[in-house]
Amino acid sequence: MADKRHMCLLGRIILCALLTGISGAEVTQVFFSSAEDVRLSCNNALSGCTSTTWNYNRPSGTVELIALGIKKTDTERHERLSLGSDCSLNIKKVTKEDRGEYTCRQYVNKTHYGADARVFLHVLHVSSSSSQSEIRSGRSLTLFCQLYYDDLVSCDILVHSEGLDLIWVNQAGVNLQTDSRFQISFSSEQCNISLTTTLLNEDHNREWRCQLKHRDQLKTSATYTVKYPTPSETNPPSPVTSSKSASAPTQAASADSTLIPVSSSNSEKKSSQTTAASTEQEKQTPQTPETTATQRVIVSIVEIAVFAAPTVILLQIICARRAGRKNSSPK
After folding, report:
1. CB distance 42 to 88 below 8 Å
2. How far apart are alpha carbons 233 and 135 in whole angstroms?
3. Domain shared by 46 and 116, yes or no
4. Rounded to an integer, what distance in angstroms lies between the CA atom of residue 2 and that of residue 328?
5. The domain that contains 54 carries what CATH number?
6. Same domain? 39 vs 106
7. Percentage helix, strand, coil, to 5, in the chain?
8. pLDDT in tens, the chain (331 residues)
9. Is the domain of 290 the same as that of 258?
10. Which of 44, 78, 90, 149 has its CA 20 to 30 A from that of 97?
């Protein structure tokens, strides 16, 4: 018990040293959930921001993000960073890798001016043990809600000395710890609170929210929405097949075999009737390329015969008259 008290006391000393600083810098703690847009205030900024420099402090070293009001473009995440009109540092779609200590420092005539403004950024992130395709009724689901913080501070210090608390609540804000359906456990080593449950049919589109409280005041929250896959996502689509219409060649053949009348004689009427009968027969009989060609030949022969018949008769009459004249002439 005494060892635990000593650890808490030591934690308070370390935390105070980090949050106060030797130079008496002003310290701010901010809490955001992942994917939010973040604004880190620079409370010691001078007008114009041309004297403002923002640094990101990690155990591996210090990275200069803003130098005398100008954004550095050689940093890994410079596209998500911008300097506000009030000299604040803006971070778009914050990630858990953005956690840590940020320092706003002023320089006048290339000389460090005044006390630094230090901001500790904490990021809350929710993840799932299952992929989206595995989430469905009847299966077990485990959600992890983890607070990412500065590497120099332990979760025990934040929980016991600063009064941070992580809880899971439903859409109505009721603590799920009181519901026997959920198994909730907290790990102080990773500052992670997990929720495990077996999904029900009515859980589709249901929201569970992880809340971060600092001394009983809500600082931020991250929401997880249960989404069951749609049938199109679980079943492969049926293959789409296409077939050509069997009537298409028949229609083309019928169109090609249509004849244009030349005269209004009785022969034309017979030809038209023959053609119409042929066309009607083509519509009723399934056509093949060979059958179609044969029918065209037959139709052509019939047409020639019909149109040639009057000419042959006329020639026979002329020949008969000439023969009659020869017989009646005197010898």
Report:
1. yes
2. 12
3. yes
4. 160
5. 2.60.40.10
6. yes
7. 35, 30, 35
8. 444 444 443 344 344 444 444 445 689 999 999 999 999 999 999 989 999 999 999 888 899 999 999 999 988 899 999 999 999 999 999 999 999 999 999 999 999 999 999 999 999 999 999 988 899 999 999 999 999 998 888 898 888 888 999 999 999 999 999 999 999 999 988 899 999 999 999 999 999 999 999 999 999 999 999 999 887 655 544 444 343 434 344 343 344 433 334 334 444 444 445 444 444 544 444 555 555 666 776 767 767 766 666 676 777 777 677 666 655 555 4
9. yes
10. 44
> Looking up tokens 């000593």, which residue turns up?
6
In three-state secondary structure terms, 238 is: coil
Q: Whose structure tokens read 């002023």? A: 106
The candidate with the shortest Cα–Cα distance to 305, out of 269, 264, 267, is 267
DSSP sequence for 127-148: EESS-GGG--TTSEEEEEEEEE
> How many C-beta neighbours within 10 Å does residue 210 have?
26
Domain of residue 114 covers 26-122
Positive or negative, the CA dihedral 110, 114, 115, 117 is negative
- How far is residue 51's CA from residue 62's CA, in Å, rounded to a whole number? 19
146 and 108 housed in the same domain: no
CA 49-55-58 angle, to 5 degrees, is: 165
Distance CA 76, CA 241 (A): 50
Q: Is residue 282 part of a domain?
A: yes
Domains in the chain, number: 3
What's 67-95 look like in SS3? ECCEECCCCCCHHHEEECCCCCEEECCCC
Max Cα distance, the chain (Å)? 166
Distance CA 255, CA 307 (A): 22
Angle at the Cα of 136 from the Cα atoms of 182 and 192, rounded to 5 degrees: 40
238: in domain: no
- Which of 230, 264, 296 is a domain's end point? 230
Is 6 contained in some domain? Answer: no
**Residue 11 corresponds to which tokens in the numbers above?**
């934690």
- Together in a domain, 33 and 109: yes
